[in-house]
Design goal:
alpha/beta; 5-stranded parallel sheet
Length: about 450
């Protein structure tokens, strides 16, 4: 095989020499540049497998080099080297498309891990990934096509990703897909529900502990970070972490090191962090229940999953998929689902999203008669059949006229957004509303 080549950009001779020696021992050739100008010349003259650049250069900074490589369309992983404590700059670089970052003084173990990961990104294995994504993240609506495209993009680097969305909208599924399409697919995927761990055990569960470090610690134990080493750690309901653990999590992200309870020394860990919650983290930052610096670190890239009611056109495809799986699990024939039942599902609000849809179908599969699931079998509170003609009706005895009208307005707003590819300005124009009025209605109806 041809020896990989790395572009090293740093104005300090000692750093260049350290990186060159380390890379050479990994059978990687280094080409060195002292500034941006030399780096651009080398990039124009030959191809590279990786770029390591310092952030502070005599004629600019590493962010400019990241921009230059992105603009030139070079498929080149870029890792930035920042001064100790300059995480803000590293976060900016990753938002611009940098693969990863290192802090000075350079830790050689972390450097070797980063280089190995980056070279995998530079020479990915050919895998049929789009089909696999479509098989599990279903829907042909514009918003779902866009989310699948984003998953493929964000899977390529190491930036922390924050997945937001309502309960049951598929946040863990998206996290698994990011892992499966990443360079870490052959390593562990460790999913944690932060709300299910007692506060007094959290530090030990996350970082591990040494034997005898506290009462009941009868043996050394690895924590979640060590279990996910080399792979992906998914923190679901990250909003439920207590402030004391948020501080330690922030340090683990910044330093890429952890300290088990009772251990004297920090241990390096190589983990891609994904996090999610159905709560409003930005609001929690404002009221002081979630650290602003941690929010900034975990939210380098955000993926927002729309609720099921915003993509009703996807419901028939999802329902067919769920019914086939449920029927297989229960070893029964796959039933048909009537047009009336599909229409009922498409007009239902789904506060529990895809998880609720699955529960409704599982109940219908158990209780329906014959070979077809009809609308009445779904037992939806907002739907009933009348003389064989399906209609979407609200139970006026249970809901006020105001609630009924609000629901009608919600459907009109969502339909306009879908038809205009989620462009609010175009949707407002279609409905004959001012943009300001449209935004106000979205906020008032909880659709923002």
């Amino acid at each position: 095989m041809t020896m990989p080549v790395t572009l090293v950009v740093d104005d300090e001779p000692d750093i260049r020499e350290l990186l060159e020696i380390t890379l050479s021992r990994m059978n990687i050739r280094a080409c060195c540049a002292e500034n941006l100008s030399e780096a651009r010349q080398l990039l124009a003259a030959q191809s590279f497998d990786l770029c390591l650049t310092d952030m502070r250069l005599p004629d600019g900074d590493g962010l400019e080099l990241v921009d230059y490589i992105q603009a030139a369309g070079l498929q080149l992983p870029v890792a930035v080297i920042t001064a100790h404590g300059s995480m803000d700059i590293a976060i900016k670089a990753m938002k611009k498309g940098a693969f990863d970052f290192l802090s000075k003084p350079v830790d050689l173990v972390a450097l070797r891990q980063l280089v190995n990961n980056a070279l995998k990104a530079s020479h990915p294995k050919t895998v049929e990934k789009d089909r696999r994504t479509r098989d599990t993240l279903l829907g042909d609506s514009d918003v779902m096509c866009e989310i699948r495209s984003k998953i493929q993009k964000v899977a390529r680097n190491q930036a922390p990703i924050y997945i937001s969305g309502e309960s049951g909208s598929g946040k863990e599924l998206v996290a698994k897909l990011i892992h499966q399409q990443s360079l870490r697919a052959d390593k562990p995927f460790v999913a944690i529900n932060c709300g299910a761990i007692p506060h007094e055990l959290m530090e030990s569960e996350f970082f591990g502990h040494k034997k005898g470090s506290f009462s009941g610690a009868i043996a050394d134990k690895h924590g979640f970070f060590q279990a996910a080493d080399g792979g992906t750690l998914f923190l679901d309901e990250v909003a439920d972490l207590p402030l004391t653990l948020q501080v330690k999590l922030l340090r683990a992200i910044q330093e890429k090191k952890i300290r088990p309870v009772g251990e004297q020394h920090e241990l390096p860990v190589d983990v891609r962090l994904l996090s999610a919650t159905h709560k409003d983290l930005a609001k929690m930052v404002q009221d002081g229940s979630f650290r602003q610096d941690l929010y900034y670190r975990i939210n380098v890239i955000e993926l927002n999953l729309p609720p099921l009611r915003f993509r009703s056109k996807d419901i028939p495809q999802i329902a067919d998929h769920l019914l086939a799986r449920l029927a297989k699990n229960n070893q029964v024939p796959i039933p048909l689902i009537s047009n009336a039942a599909l229409s009922a599902l498409q007009h239902y609000g789904f506060p529990g999203n895809v998880r609720e849809l699955e529960n409704i179908l599982e109940r219908a599969l158990a209780l329906h008669e014959g070979d077809t699931i009809n609308a009445d079998d779904l037992n939806l509170p907002e739907y009933q059949e009348d003389s064989g003609k399906q209609q979407s009706l609200f139970n006026v005895a249970q809901m006020s006229l105001e609630s009924y009208l609000e629901n009608v307005e919600k459907k009109a707003l969502v339909a306009a957004l879908e038809e205009n590819r989620w462009n609010k300005t175009a949707a407002a124009k279609q409905l004959g509303m001012t943009f300001r009025s449209f935004r106000y209605r979205l906020k008032k109806l909880g659709l923002e």
